Amino acid sequence: MIPVCEPLLIGNELDYVVKAMSSNWISSSGEYVTRFEEDFAKYIGTRYALTAVNGTAALHLACLALGLGSGDEVIIPDFTMISSAFAICYTGSKPVFVDAELESWNIDSSRIEEKITSRTKAIMPVHIYGQPCNMKAISELASKYNLRVLEDAAEVHGAMFEAKKCGSMGDISCFSFFANKVITSGEGGMIATNDKNLYDSCRYFKNLAFPLDGPRDYIHQDIGFNYRMTNLAAAIGLAQLEKIELYIAKRRKNAALYREFLKDIPGLKLQPESPGTFNVYWMNGIVVGDEFGPSRNRLRDELKTRGIDSRNFFFPMHRQPALAKYGCETKDLYPVPDYLSERGLYLPSGSGLTESQIEFICQQIRDIRK
Ligand SMILES: *Cc1c(COP(=O)(O)O)cnc(C)c1O
C-alpha cells in the first residue's frame, strides 16, 4: 500500500535521539528543546519560538495568551481541521465560521467582515494544505477592527506570502510536527511570535502556570497546563529542521509531478499556487468534478483496491456535531466547504514518494476513469 503520508527520517534524527538518551536528558529540559526553538524562530523569522507537546496544544496556548475567554468570538475558516476550532472552544470562546474560496480552498477573506461583531477578538487564518491565505486582506481587516491574528500554520512550514514566511505575519502563530506534516518530531508543536508578552504568557500556561521567574513554592495564580515537549521529540524535530529545504523541495516536486501526470484528465482540479505565494504542498488534493465520471468515493475505494491510500478532505466545521452541541452558529450556508468535502481527496504526498510511484498513482486514476 502506498501511504498518504509517511515521515522521512534521513538526517541526524537517530544520532540526536541517542545523544539525548545517553545524556539522560529525556524530559522537557535539555539542549535539543532550546536549539529547536532557537533555530525554528530563526527559520520563520520571528523573535521567539516555543515548543509544545502538539499543534493543538500550541493553538490552545496561543488562544490563552491572547486572553480569549467566555463571550469572545474568533473567526476561522469553515474548511479546516478540527483542532483550529477545538483550541478556541477550550478557552470558552466561540469559533465563527467563514466560507472558503473555490480556487485556493482557503478562508474567503471577502466574507470575513460580515462575521465581525462587537464580541470578535481575533481572526485565525488557516493556511490549507500548504497554500498561504491572503494575509494582506486579513491583516488589513484586523487593523481596521482592532483584532488579533493567530495563524494556524500547522500545514505550511516554509510557505510564504509575498516573501514573508507563514507564521511570521500574525500576532502569534502555531505549527504542528505530527508525523505527516512537512517536518515532524513524532508528536509536537511550536508557537512563533515577535511579542514578548505573548511569548511569556505561552511559557507560563504551558508549564502549569508556575511563576516564570518566581520561587518554586507551588503556589499557582491561574489554571495552567502541562504542554511541554520532551527533549527526545525536540531531538527529532531539530534534525528534521536541518533538512527542511530538502523536504519542501520534495513536496513541491511531488506537486509538479501530479500536475504533469494528471493534466489532461477532465474533471480533476488541483490546488493552485496563488500569485505572490510559495505553496509547500503539504498535501496534494484533487477535487473530483462531474466530468471525471466516477464519484470521489468510487475513486477512493478503487485506489484502495489498487494499493493506493488516500483521504477525504476535511469535513466542514458547520457540520460538526461537536461544534453544534457547543453552541456554534451552524445554520449559515457554506457552499464551498460543502463542495470541497464531498469532492475532495488527498493523494499520497509524503516526502519519500518516488517519481515512479506518483506516475503509477496517476495511471491508476486515468484507468479508473475509463
Ligand atoms: C495538524 C493540524 C493541527 C494540529 O496538530 P496536532 O499536532 O496534530 O495537534 C492543527 N491545525 C491544522 C490545520 C492541522 O493540519
Distance between the termini: 22 Å
| β-strand number | 14
Assign the CATH class of the largest domain: Alpha Beta
Q: Please, how many domains?
A: 2
How would you summarize this macromolecular structure in one to three sentences?
This protein is of the alpha/beta class and 370 residues long.
Write the layout of secondary structure elements.
Elements: H1 13-22, H2 31-44, E1 48-52, H3 55-65, E2 73-77, H4 82-90, E3 94-98, E4 120-123, H5 135-145, E5 148-152, E6 160-161, E7 164-165, E8 172-176, E9 189-193, H6 196-206, H7 231-242, H8 244-262, E10 268-270, E11 277-278, E12 284-288, H9 296-305, E13 311-312, H10 321-326, H11 335-343, E14 344-347, H12 355-369
Helix pairs in contact: 1-7, 2-7, 3-4, 3-6, 8-12
The structure holds pyridoxal-5'-phosphate.
